[in-house]
Amino acid sequence: MTENLLRNWEIEHFRTIGRELREAGIEFTRKNIERVLNETSFTTRSKKHPKECPYYQMQEGMLKSCHPKIEADNFSCFLCSCPNYDSSSDQGKCRINSPQGKYFPVNWNSSGKVWDCSDCTNFHSTNQVRSYIESKFKEIKASLQS
Ligand code: SF4
Fold first, then answer.
1. pLDDT tens digits, residue range 17-26?
2. Which residue range(s) make up the domain with 36?
3. Most CB within 10 Å of its CB: which of 19, 57, 87, 129?
């Protein structure tokens, strides 16, 4: 069986976020949701963890997120992997078939394409992520601890 790079990336992202929150001394509690959002924002992570994402390494003034339709200062990296993203295959797909997504050609998997969410605005703004965390608090807490 070939390795599913997308799934590995999803799992690793949540582990990384969990580790960063622990290092910042922020416990994942309902009371701390605003602190969690701030610590995992594009703005904070690009300063504190510039090696975690190529987009964090852009020059000041050119800084933009991987979903350019959302302003960088309103962008949350908490759900780097959207809850609607289906990573069960290495090409990925959108569970709700968002018309804002599309397949993009790649040379690193067997299907030669991967589902690309960069034009989609779902689940990446601070307000959307806050609502998602509030509605799925227990499940998210478990993912961060795994
Ligand atoms: S296209 Fe949008 S809704 Fe679908 S998985 Fe990507 S970010 Fe999520």
1. 999 999 999 9
2. 5-145
3. 129
